[in-house]
Amino acid sequence: xxxxxxxxTETHEWIKPDGxxxxxxxxDFAVAELSNGNEGxxxxxxxxxxxxxxxxxxxxxxxxxxxxxxxxxxPIAGEVVESNMATEEHLEILSKDPWNQGWLIRIRPNAKxxxxxxxxxxxxxxxxxxxx
Amino acid sequence: xxxxxxHDVHVRLGAKMVEFGGWSMPVQYGPILDEVRTVRTKAGLFxxxxxxxxxxxxxxxxxxxxxxxxxxxxxIPESSIRxxxxxxxxxNPIDDLLVYKGKDEVFLxxxxxxxxxxxxxMREHARGKNVVIDDQTDALAxxxxxxxxxxxxxxxxxxxCDLAKIGYYKFGFGTVCGIPNTRISRTGYTxxxxxxxxxxxxDGVRVWEEISAAGKAHGLAPIGLGARDTLRLExxxxxxxxxxxxxxxxxxxxxxxxxxxxxxxxDWIGRSxxxxxxxxxxxxxxxxxxDGPRVPRQGYELYRGAExxxxxxxxxxxxxxxxxxxxxxxxxxxxxPGETCEIVINGxxxxxxxxxxxxxxxxxx
Lengths: 132, 365
Fold this sequence. Notes:
A: CATH 2.40.50.100, three-stranded antiparallel sheet, 4 helices, 9 strands, B: Alpha-Beta Plaits
């Protein structure tokens, strides 16, 4: 079971309340899809500058593997407070710990409700239904 | 989606399966870059049973294929193979292929994604010709063994055929894993020495397993389409849909070795259009290398300052070169080796250097 202290999107991001702000990252599934379990397959990650205003659903960055480039999207609107430079520079962190160390951006949300997003159980179901 | 005879083997080996040209194919069994290194240093085994295989027989077979393909079929020695393309009248290719010239046959190997288009094209132009077109794609499994250890691995499994006597781009027939009269060609899409063998569908799994077992001591591993794409790009080989397609012709792609304008070849579909291109090409295909983290990918534009220079058609991380590489189109005369440009990736720029193709070439014996 994936962590239940956060919510999930259909594009495999997670978002977790952390005091007045929220952390956004990508799930282990997203990392596996990109890297196929090989941390060396991730080659690049681009995260936004602090202060950037994001709309719900907006692409805030990109992550690239040997095979493909994927957009990083925020499920909620808000202001980027901080980007995780450690992850940007050491992509292997995403393979080791996508849930904590591997967060991507910290956002100050315009509204705090995450009710529209999936909880861990719903995300598991979503993955099971979309497994090919 | 179609499965090759090896489908269950791939799944059992833990391959990641993807759709490719209408087939479910293994894109990788392990890390793609490791698979590339395995082929460059040892040997790799590929399932290519998705490739279209078409056998043309009948008294007019050579003249018939001659009128459709860019290479000079009548001049191909028996048991030799040439690269060629099928073109439309405008000179743009509908596919590229290998032409095997046999004693009483012309055997064609075409791309999976274009097989039906090719067959329709061939049948349309066969009207009134004394030829028989036999689509053998579903009847045959096709395996490729690529890498320096290939001959050492395969020879013990082959009776009545000395692989050392089959030169590069030549083929012969032998008993492979007990299957008599099996087509064996010294061809591949990796830039390495290697062989491609064509066996009846029902024998595909057994031959795969016998080659795998024989290759164990040589470090042989199964290789997916992901690594195959990197290997062919390093070796400067074109892929339909990238370097060549309905708007990118073979002359500007630098594939002149596969095109004959010899008068004795006579007319072939696309000839006059390609002759015009050859006299005044507007663009050309060149290599691109970058030390930046991002990988050149099809569709990215190339600039130098404010000037647009061209666009990328293929790209990959290259473990052999130790850089990210790509192929790109630039105006004829531009993109000389050593000249620089910037790849534009989602609004950001990454420095790159043009270079000659291929990126990798192994001297042949």
